[in-house]
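pasting for ref. prot 1 ->
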Amino acid sequence: MTTKVSMATLNAMPVEDFVRVLGGVFEHSPWVAERAAAHRPFTSVHALHTEMVRQIEGAEHDLQMKLICAHPELAGKAAIRGELTPESTSEQAGAGLDQCAPEEFARLTQLNQAYREKFGFPFILAVKGYDRAGIIAQFERRLGLTPAQEVQESLQQIFKIGRFRLEALVEEN
């Protein structure tokens, strides 16, 4: 278990250290932490998360799409090869995706492919609280969305993932 860092410590850190500690909150996108650092001090995890979300929402579309594309597929090739970030590995395992039955894995593979063909980026879901059947149901529902709707849904899921990760990393004052 990683030791949590206090909000007071985060607020006092040099920018480089702040980014080192929080750079993984949003998958392979340390720019979010770097931009948020300029708005310290933060009084709570909620305030920090709100600022990080504001930085993403205010970013240019191409940068938002890079953030979306930085996420791994659920139960995808990167998971099989052991190439996920520690955060993604833990989140996917917590939803039981590392224990898929062959038919579940086949269905997830099919859904990942259909989703990527339709939208051009990986399916993103804050899996905390979902089981494999719930994840499959979300995949199926979201395949019915338009590309513009799905970009917004993906960003909302990324914001949830970021919140969970911040809560695991940062201790309130």
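and prot 2 ->
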Amino acid sequence: MGTLVLNPIAFSIGALQVHWYGLILGSGALAGLLLAIWEGKRFKIPQEFFMDLLLFGVPSAIVGARIYFVAFKWDDYKDNLWDIFKIWNGGIAIYGALIGAIISAVILVRKRGYNFWRIADISAPSLFIGQIIGRWGNFVNQEAYGGETTEAFLRDYLHLPTFIVNQMNIEGVFRHPTFLYESVWNLIGLFLLLILRRRKSLRAGELFCSYFIWYSIGRFFIEALRTDSLAFQGADWLASFINGLWSPMVWLGFEQGYLAPSYGNVRISQLLALLIVVVAVLFIILRRKTIPDLPRYLDPIVSTKASEMDSLAAPMPAQEAKAASEQDNKAISAEEANSHPKPDSTEDKKE
């Protein structure tokens, strides 16, 4: 942590300190919720469903992100277990957050009777807007930054405002604002998804896959600029292959952030990003070829749970209603007959 230009603590209530990091993440989640609710209205999905999705999704994402990060940095936490819970100091992995959120969403969506891919498509732009805003929490904390650069590169080449340039001066060395690169990349991705989801040819699940494709492409190139990447010691050919794919960034004037050889030579997020892009593209292609009647994004969304409730509450057809009415009349006639006493046959004979 270098010399902070911005105070990471927004305000204090007694001994309780409220950090900008948490407020920014919360703002991103709220903005994503509002965007999902707005789109959900087109499909007549109640806003309470998306609120529940956020209510369960955010804690699951935080837990998943922290578990993912701590698992790869276990040596830093095994002797200080309490530090595992200090998420306000940073140290969460976005892919872990996505895993946690998706697991939570699958459970809730199925419980409510919706198709997961339909809800995932609606939520995809919300994931982008949450990341666009949330990355600025890294900016305030001076974390997730890139390798060394120069003030001239930031001011004159990238034309960044002074408040960003000053905050990127960490311990007397200017660093690449990778938080900003990712935020801008995701902003472009958000606009692309908003345009793509209006296309009539778009099938269910493909907007969600498009989110992963676009985000992972950007993450592959941005991750190599960072100096805090999770990494492992992989085969030399794999490291060379990844570095070769990244080489166009050199033409743009960027250099990879330092990664200690003893720590590893393959950045986990880069490798995972490549795998996600390949899997997502194959998923879209194979799904279209093997499932001819895939629903489209613009098709109505119906909850099977709602259908069951509607069928129970729906009026019976005319024939069924008539038959039920006749049975009721017979039952009433039988009850009335039983209510009158029968004449005593013995007395009749005596008379």
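Residues 216 and 272 are 8 Å apart (CA to CA).
Residues 9-301 form one domain.
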